[in-house]
Every structure is written in structure tokens, then in C-alpha cells.
Fold:
Amino acid sequence: MPKRSFNAASVTPDELGAQLYAEAARKNPDLRRMKTLIAAGANIEYRGDQNYTPLLAAVGKQNVDAAALLIDNGADKYVRAGEMAPMFYAIALYHLDMVKMLLDKGVDPERDVYKGGLTALMWAANFGKKNLADELARRGGDVNRINPNDGKAAPDYAEDNLKPHIAKSLRRIDTEKKDLAIQEERAEKDRAEQQRLAAEKAALDAECDAGLPLKGSVKVMRPLSLARPAAKI
Structure:
């Protein structure tokens, strides 16, 4: 196969973007060439087939490395073509590694909703994919968020699709997250108290070292009398 090349000085950002899109849409894209195109000024948000950007094309081809490369170089990780966004696309393809990568890159699973008011977690639960739903619930998905269009939360969609084990798992994860939050709050209070006590001790030690009189909060002990009590007659 002949090597694909281009003259960056003779093409526009959109022309380079079209090449970037074509590369991202391949089953096995050349990541080095993608980097070269981006460095040459390719429009990373170029719209190709179905109004997809290179990122959506890479997600569609289930190429995690290409999708990550595009995000690292400024691609909009929330970009949409109609209702489809990278996270929803990854869920529709049941691609756990893509979902994990998007979460690693900072995608907020609660930011956007799909048609009908479904969040990413609701959609995964609706599809009946436990591994996807659990990952989203552990990493920012709100198990208790209600879809205002039908009054349902993610566990309800799982139960509607005869997946009670997914609903049970989501509620367990939610309980674990709440318990962990309580533990972290207690630990933070303990750290704050330890810091306060340490600061007070350091201040008291400094006063003692400087020979300063102790503050009124510290009681001065009077020496005991050595005189014997008078004998009773």
C-alpha cells in the first residue's frame, strides 16, 4: 500500500481535518499520522459522515487509543451529532474500555442526557449491561437521579428490563459511596482536630521555651505546705 502523505502548506485546516477524520474512521488508524495531521493544523472538530467528528468516528470504530489521542489534543469530549455523544456511543457499543477511558479523561456522566432524558447511567441500566452501569455508578453516576420525563431512576430501568440484579448492584454501590463519604467526613474532622491540638501544643512549647508566663487557661499549682498540723489536745 502506498504511503499516504500531504503538503501542509498547500491544504486548509478543513482539508487536513478531512484526512484526520478518514484516519480516525479506519479500523486500525495510524496514530503517528494522526499526530502529524493535528500538528499541521487539522480541524480536530471536522464533520464527516453523519456529521460525526474524528472523535465520534474513533469511538464508532472502537479504537480507544485513537479516541484518547484526539481528546488529549483538544477534541470536544462532549461533542454531539444529533443525540449521539462519545459516552452514549460507547455505551451503545457495550464498550467498557472506551467508557473507562472517557471517564479517565474527565467526562462527567451526569453532564448530558440522551433522548427522553436518560443519563449515561440510566442508558446503561436500560441496556442491561451490568459492567457498564456499575462502572458509571462508581465514577460519578447518580443512582438516585430521577428522569423528570417518567419519574424513574437508573435501578428502575434495570428492573423494567427484567434485570433486578443490576438494580440491586446499583443500590449497593450507592450505599457504599454514602458510607465512604461519611467515613471520609469523620476522618477529615479527626485530621482537623489533630492539627488544632498540634498547633496549641506548639504555641505552648514556644511560650515555655521563651520563658513567657503561661496563659490564664493554664492553672498554676501552689506548693504543698510542709508544716505538720497542730496536735489535738
Remarks:
- The chain has ten helices and no strands.
- The two ends are 124 Å apart (CA to CA).
- Residues 164-210 form the longest helix (47 residues).
- The mean pLDDT is 89.
